[in-house]
Design a protein that fits this description.
By secondary structure, this protein is mainly alpha-helical. The protein has one domain: Arp2/3 complex 21 kDa subunit ARPC3 (Orthogonal Bundle), CATH 1.10.1760. Helices cover 78% and strands 0% of the residues. It starts with a helix and ends in a 10-residue tail after the last helix.
Length: 186
């Protein structure tokens, strides 16, 4: 049992490191990030608290040394609201644990893509409101200015979530030596 807890901590730490590393790797591709997906899968596999922690710790590191600049209000908001991906992922993981998805891989991929879309929409709207408050502009103005970036974020997350969720959850299951989610159906 102790060995399993150490493995869980190691994997969660690795997921945080992956979030930060992939954000730097993709710094030139604005609003295409793998972080949201990694936080979601971390929550899905390890629960809502672990998922929230992955999101908060990832932004705690990346946000302070963000190549786009540092603004404390935006940094705190991103730390807090990135955790939404992990919390919802964790709640879904608990709900779907031990459910068999044999022969439903396409439906499951569409489901994960839809979750990526909805969570990103919530994240973007909230952060646009925070951005509007910080820069003292209208919320509608902030949403309109951010619209092209939001569309890129939405489309990339739909793709990443739908294509990557099943393989990543399966990989985490294999590393942990468990089969809880039934998503690895062939």
């Amino acid at each position: 049992m102790f060995k399993l807890k150490i493995l869980k901590v190691a994997i969660i730490s690795t997921l945080v490191a992956l979030c930060v590393a992939t954000n730097y790797a993709l710094v030139g591709v604005y609003n295409v990030k793998v972080m949201d997906f990694i936080v979601f899968v971390g929550g899905f596999c390890f629960g809502p608290i672990a998922g929230a922690l992955i999101g908060i710790l990832s932004w705690a590191v990346y946000g302070v040394i963000n190549p786009y600049g540092f603004m404390p209000q935006i940094w705190l908001a991103t730390m807090l609201f990135e955790s939404i991906y992990g919390i919802i992922g964790g709640l879904l993981g608990r709900t779907l644990a031990s459910t068999s998805f044999d022969g439903q891989r396409l439906k499951l991929s569409v489901f994960f893509g839809t979750m990526g879309f909805l969570l990103t929409l919530i994240y973007e709207v909230i952060l646009n409101v925070v951005w509007a408050q910080v820069f003292e502009i209208s919320i509608i103005g902030a949403i309109v200015v951010a619209a092209p970036f939001t569309v890129v974020h939405e489309l990339s997350n739909v793709t990443i979530f739908s294509v990557g969720s099943i393989p990543m959850i399966t990989a985490v299951e294999k590393i942990m030596g468990v089969k809880r989610f039934g998503v690895s159906a062939k």
